[in-house]
Amino acid sequence: MTTFPRRLAASLPVALLLLLALLPAPARAESDPLVAARWQVAWDTYRFYECLTAPLPVTGRSRAERDISIEIDAPVQHVFDVYSDIENHLGIHPFLRRVVTHRDRTENGVRLVDLTAVEDVPVAGVPVTSETHAQQRLHRDALFYETDTWTLPNVVTHQRIVFEDLGQGRTRVTEHLVFEASVLLIDFTVTNGVSSHQRTQAGLKEAIESGEL
């Protein structure tokens, strides 16, 4: 995410909605079990409500899809391992401040990671602490992973990140991003979501190619 768009910043109801929704999550001073409990609530909400509700305008929600890609001068397996470890996004993702991993296990050959990303998101020029609850499903042998995320106020993303071996030690990373949010927030969500992912892509490319990661 980047800055709050001017069109939405001028809309007081939208700004208030975001502020009221995000302010109740000051996770920094809290214990990890409390963050984990909120992750479980978010996951249950997603599984038993969001998955069954089509994001159509009649429901007050909308969906948008975007693809972004980047080429990195490094072998594909190394790029996958670095890129898929969200801990490596700290200091690169523009708003990411902390990562809390709740569970990390392997089921049927797929690695599953339940985590919460704590971010400071600028809303109308004011940094607001937000929690993004996520589950990663890593298919290392097939060179892709998927991530579902849920953030107040009921903003969902579906991500499929594919790694392509270009030969000669080069890799193409393509992110297929699906955003679901209120019709009032979808433009903000897409603009800021795509921007933050592009900045993270560029930062990881630089860190990998320099040998830092």
UniProtKB/TrEMBL annotation:
Keyword set, alphabetical order: Signal
Tagged with keyword Signal: yes
Signal sequence segment: 1-29
A Pfam family recorded for this sequence: Polyketide_cyc2
UniProt cross-references to InterPro entries, sorted A to Z: Polyketide_cyclase/dehydratase, START-like_dom_sf
Top-level taxon: Bacteria
Gene3D superfamilies in alphabetical order: 3.30.530.20
Protein name per the record: Polyketide cyclase
